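Changelog-linked ticket: iron/sulfur cluster example.
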Amino acid sequence: MATEVYPRCALCPVKACENHGAAANGEPPSLEKTPPFCVMKLMPEVFPASLEEYDKPETADFAKKASLQEAECYEKTPDGVRTRLPRIEELIQFARKCGYKTLGLAHCGGLAEEARLLTGILEKNGFKVVSVMCKAGGIPKERIGVPSECKIADPDEWESMCNPIAQAMVLNKAKVDLAVMLGLCIGHDTLFIKHCERPLTVLAVKDRVLGHNPLAALYTSGSYYRRLANGIE
Ligand code: SF4
């Protein structure tokens, strides 16, 4: 039976696309040592097509600013390259670079305090902040078919549904320059992304157990979270 071959950069041992050591205007990366699943072999047509998109004036400007911002997150020191900006500072710098005035915050009710703190910081840095919490609208979970026993607290009490579609609609209607997601749940974030029509970035994703740092489970997947690597039920 033929083995399915599909892009798997995550498993690539060579990362030839980084073209380390080549001169800036030198030869492009060689595919010689790349694995059979290398996307540059499997889908070579994607890359020129992507460049056509980058050549569109609005995208060109945005992409350049994003890469300039990336560079500003590092500094060259006598000891080598060091990182220097936390993501919140990066967000402020990038939003300024883009000339954004109004930011839209789509946040989870579980991160209401973080949303309040973030709003204060962003306002102090000159932005207008439109914010909308996931429970806005106050629609009960029954409306989307959630059975009582699947409520988080008391099955007999009102529990408002998370409404990421409404969050997106509010930020669309407010015509925010940049929507910022803060701690939406998995699935709710998917719906928000699908319905948000404004430029969108993520400040943080939700991880209830690990202080909104899901990668902590990866870093400890050889020890405390070995069950993940072993395959969970
Ligand atoms: S593009 Fe090719 S060389 Fe680069 S990481 Fe993916 S598989 Fe490896």
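Closing comment: Example verified and attached. The first helix runs from residue 39 to 42. The beta strands are 74-77, 80-83, 102-107, 128-133, 178-182, 200-204.
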